[in-house]
Fold this sequence. Notes:
The chain is of the alpha+beta class. Helices cover 29% and strands 21% of the residues. Strands 13-8-1-2-3-14-20 form a seven-stranded mixed β-sheet, sandwiched between helices. Strand 5 and strand 6 form a beta hairpin. Helix 1 (25-36) packs across helix 8 and helix 2 (40-49) packs across helix 8. The longest helix is centred in the middle third of the chain and has 21 residues, at 241-261. It is globular. 56% of the residues are buried. Mean pLDDT is 76; it is low at 1-42, 88-100, 362-388 and 391-399.
Amino acid sequence: MPDATRRPLARHGRLPRRRGWTTLASIVASALAVVLVSGTSVAAIAGAQLASAPSTVKLSTDDQSTAQTADITAIKGGANILLIGSDTRVGQFDSADDVEGARNDVTMLIHISQDHQQLTAISFPRDLMVPIPACTNPETGTTYPAATSAQFNTALGNGGVSCVVDTVENLTGLSIPYAGLITFDGVIEMSNALGGVDVCVAEPINDTYTGLHLTAGSHNLEGSDALAFLRTRHGVGDGSDLARISSQQVFLSALLRKVTSDGTLSNPITLYKLAGAALSNMTLSDGLAQARTLVGLAGALRGMSTANMLFVQYPVADDPADRARVIVDQDAAHTLNVALQNDQKTSLTDSSTGRASEESGTGSGTATTAPSTGTSTGSSGSSSGTSTGTSTGAATSTATASSTPLPSSITGQSASEETCSVGNN
């Protein structure tokens, strides 16, 4: 539960004509991994979708070389894939209210260990101030000079997917040979294909910006309701963008549990719909847009325990120069970066679930099913600050003698952990 004694957080003002649509793209990003978990049969379906997928994009020369020559199942130190959610609404279902430009408002780095025993999904806050390298926009040809400190979500507009990849590589010290750019149109299709996702709400969520109103309890969310749940920040935790990240992790974990445990993967029609919803709304890097890569990715993920699928937020602290922004928590980030670089098995044993989530059963809500009433209209801004949350204990990740515990300041959860979103009631 959020600490009521904590000083209030700054909030962003509402930006005209720009909504928080692309926080939803995280579910589409997760979908690529989800539809591949079952093995090569699903990867073959996904591979078949490549023929109708959007155009591919090129990464830097080094990244392209690695992707073209390496087997994704045997990359030394594990495989890294960057999934980017663009905030463009041009050509999307809300195209009547198009806005210019695009930003990487959702950025998730997926690290798959070389032994294929752990997947770590790291979410980078969009308001994180980071160095951004010199980049050239592939569409306009405009070159942007390097910046020692710029808002993270400007990297996509500066130089496209490759610029975001280069920024994350500089930040983490990792090589990232694969990337995908995702729009939000597939969210409704995918949640419908699954028959909805059961999400726990610990305290009522009431958000007039998104039109989302959920009572405490369990809700089966699909279509526009799932969209609204993933969009909301005003309705969860302390109303910050970091709270929205932890609430999204509740949804993504529930989705992974559903897909891997209830026979969904044995239904070829559902699998085809899932693959189509994901890939038809993605632009892939050249290396990722290959059937052999998708088949190899499927093999790497097949049989992986959800207890070893970790969602974490990149560690940040308040920016002393601007309370509406965050900066890297250098000590915690160094520990995480080194663990990823060395492909170490990690655990979140002493971590918290974040600003807007808690362990199932610890809140005031009950586990009864309630009808969902959310809609996908309204606006959403962002705000940030130092992360706090409810301690998850050993349930978050199965710790072993060989695992490296991440600092307790790094929030997150495993996909196996049943958590509830905490409403900002």
